[in-house]
Design goal:
single chain; alpha+beta
Length: 255
């Protein structure tokens, strides 16, 4: 029997079937380096990508696979949707809905704890930094065995109402619009970013004044599922009045 030559072995290897999943990941990302191995990502149960083009392709591929899966399912009989009530009230439907949105409700309603210094005088307080992401996702993940794609948009609009309690029992109510940018790769548990805004003081020692408000942010959690612990550090440079304010805050955010 003749031995196989190296050239023949190379020819056979070129005909071997390839890993379809690996090819899909390469096509979606545009390069093999655009996605980290599952063991290297913060969320090891999901496939992750870290650029806008790859996330757009993942979303399109996910929609195709959902349509193909739906078309392959057997037909089901129509069942009339009966009301589920307790003592005549739709408590079951209410609890079912809030169970799916618990993270959003917690991030929206739970306040952030503030620690501020106004002319070296400490002022504790609370605020509710509500964010609205805008633009295209720069990071995205899809949980394995599902069609659930989570995208992470780095730019977000901010509206933050809150108050500070002064040592002389004055209450400084404020609202702060702003814009933030966050960078949070899928391989990291830590994200960071910055932003700018303007704090509008509506009451307190020096009411009806506005500031220039730069900030730095740290975010803890696995991208890209919602729910993060966020730390904020900022400086309020007011255009009027005699005092500026240093801020530090901590709380739970959805985005």
């Amino acid at each position: 029997m003749r031995r196989a030559t190296p050239i023949a072995l190379l020819a056979l290897a070129s005909l071997a079937p390839r890993d379809a999943a690996g090819d899909d990941r390469t096509r979606a990302s545009g390069s093999k380096d655009a996605t980290a191995a599952p063991s290297d990502r913060a969320n090891a149960d999901a496939d992750g990508f870290d650029n806008v083009g790859a996330c757009r392709e993942l979303d399109a591929r996910n929609e195709r696979e959902v349509a193909e899966w739906s078309a392959a399912q057997p037909p089901t009989k129509y069942q009339y949707p009966r009301k589920e009530t307790i003592s005549g009230a739709p408590w079951i439907e209410f609890l079912r809905a809030t169970g799916h949105t618990g993270t959003l409700l917690a991030a929206t309603l739970a306040p952030h704890v503030l620690a501020a210094l106004r002319d070296s005088e400490p002022e504790p307080g609370l605020s509710w930094p509500w964010q609205l992401p805008i633009g295209a996702p720069a990071q995205c993940t899809r949980r394995k065995g599902s069609f659930d794609v989570s995208g992470y948009k780095p730019f977000r609009l901010l509206l933050e109402p809150g108050f500070l309690a002064g040592a002389d029992r004055t209450l400084a109510v404020f609202v702060r619009p702003g814009l933030r940018y966050m960078y949070h790769p899928t391989a990291w548990y830590l994200g960071f970013g910055g932003g700018a805004g303007s704090m509008l003081e509506l009451s307190g020692k020096e009411p009806t004044r506005a500031s220039l408000s730069p900030e730095l942010l740290l975010q803890f959690g696995a991208c890209c599922d919602p729910g993060y612990v966020t730390l904020t550090f900022r400086r309020e440079i007011f255009f009027a009045g005699s005092s500026g304010i240093w801020f530090a805050s901590a709380g739970f955010t959805y985005f």
